[in-house]
Backbone:
């Protein structure tokens, strides 16, 4: 093998090990987004949220996303929110294991069901990605895009091994 082939193989090996470790992005509420008609307990059921994953809340004017304590979640109180956003698209990076609680602070919305509790587990450190839920996509870490903008940063993990194989075969043939 030539020096160029060895470099290509090393780079591809690194990419195959790094890219799968990126977290999954969960669109809260699926295609319905964050609103009064959502059933977030049902939506989150069966999903595994890991450290490094992100929650994306998409919602119209008149709603907020507030991360709150468990007691504030239960009482629908946003006065002591950990974070608060009303931009229309809020991305929350799940950086710590444990329970995380989110509510809408608009009058009556939390009491009407606009609240979400998720249990975030520590990533096992495995380089093999878990199977994300149907409405989750694996992406690179991102910031909340401005209202009206879109992002095309999504990376489809099943594609990465195929690209690696094609590149490896091409490198060996050269």
Residues:
């Amino acid at each position: 093998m030539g020096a160029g082939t060895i470099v290509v193989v090393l780079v591809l090996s690194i990419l195959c090990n790094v890219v799968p470790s990126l977290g999954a992005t969960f669109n809260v509420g699926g295609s319905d987004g964050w609103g009064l008609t959502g059933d977030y307990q049902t939506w989150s059921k069966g999903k595994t949220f890991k450290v490094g994953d992100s929650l994306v809340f998409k919602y119209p004017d008149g709603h907020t996303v507030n991360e709150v304590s468990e007691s504030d979640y239960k009482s629908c109180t946003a006065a002591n929110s950990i974070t608060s956003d009303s931009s229309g698209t809020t991305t929350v990076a799940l950086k710590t294991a444990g329970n995380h609680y989110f509510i809408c602070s608009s009058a009556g919305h939390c009491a009407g069901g606009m609240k979400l509790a998720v249990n975030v587990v520590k990533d096992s450190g495995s380089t093999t990605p878990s199977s994300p839920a149907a409405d989750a996509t694996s992406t690179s870490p991102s910031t909340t895009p401005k209202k009206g903008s879109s992002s095309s940063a999504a990376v489809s993990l099943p594609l990465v091994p195929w690209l690696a194989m094609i590149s490896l075969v091409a490198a060996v043939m050269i």
Notes: Residues 126-159 have pLDDT under 50 and may be disordered.
